[in-house]
Amino acid sequence: MSKPIPKTPEEIKEMRTACRLAAEVLDYITPFVRTGVTTAELDRLCREYMEKTQSTVSATLNYAPPGYTPYPASICTSLNHQVCHGIPGEKPLKKGDILNIDVTVISPAGFFGDTSRMFIVGEASILAKRLCQTAYECMWLGIAAVRPGAHLGDIGHAIQRHAEGNGFSVVREFCGHGIGRKFHEEPQVLHFGKPDTGIKLQPGMIFTIEPMINAGKAAISELSDGWTIVTRDRSLSAQWEHTVLVAEGGVEVLSLSAACPLPPKLVAGTLATATADAIAALSPAPCHVEALNTHRVQSPPFMAG
Ligand code: MF3
Ligand code: CO
Ligand code: CO
User: Which CATH number covers residue 126?
Assistant: First the structure.
């Protein structure tokens, strides 16, 4: 495994744009995620928004790493016990479903931005809500561990501790990744681990943090479509993803957008000032997982509810 090459200031600027664009696709699709809509329709809408409104291209459409068949859609939609890489289809969403939508765009300048969120369709069970909330906190605790001089293992440790402390488990087979002019670069960002292990973080490194948290056991299986990953015990699974930059002052979250959910209370005060300021500029309203599907009613951004 080779070490990641820190990005240049010009590359960082382009990555800010790419990641914001990815987040804006999620902002756009949010009001459409409702009972009765199919994930195929969400895919169609996102593709149209990327190509027509943004002039971006989906990085997932026809993505074919060695040994895989080309991925057939412009977003990943992972429903309930699906862990990641779910393929959009014709089954309508129903009340109580939990859905991850994962968007990776290629910006007009050729840079990749990658982010995902959970959506709760109507009222979900207490367990489903707790799982989505805990996964969200896991991602942010991982983000809060990022600063120059910290180790990659600090991120995984923060995530694992919180997930397991809440009685949930962390998927081992999939990880966060460096990202830039390519979809998947060094380093591999594991969502479990030990403090002070792994490479030392340096300013300019850009990678994703995208923990997959299961309500049951950590083990996964792959469906015969060649892509969809599910929990082996068919328990619920939740995932959130941001792309982050190791900044001089700590961490900069690149995949923020006007309507993205705010950090949970749990990390308030632990984020570097630069991050906290950038987030404060977005919205004064805190995010509750329950509020994620409500329409945004005001401008500048508020999540209603
Ligand atoms: N966006 C996913 C990630 O976070 C990768 C999706 S690859 C696909 O790394 F082919 F399944 F779309
Ligand atoms: Co990713
Ligand atoms: Co992703």
Answer: 3.90.230.10
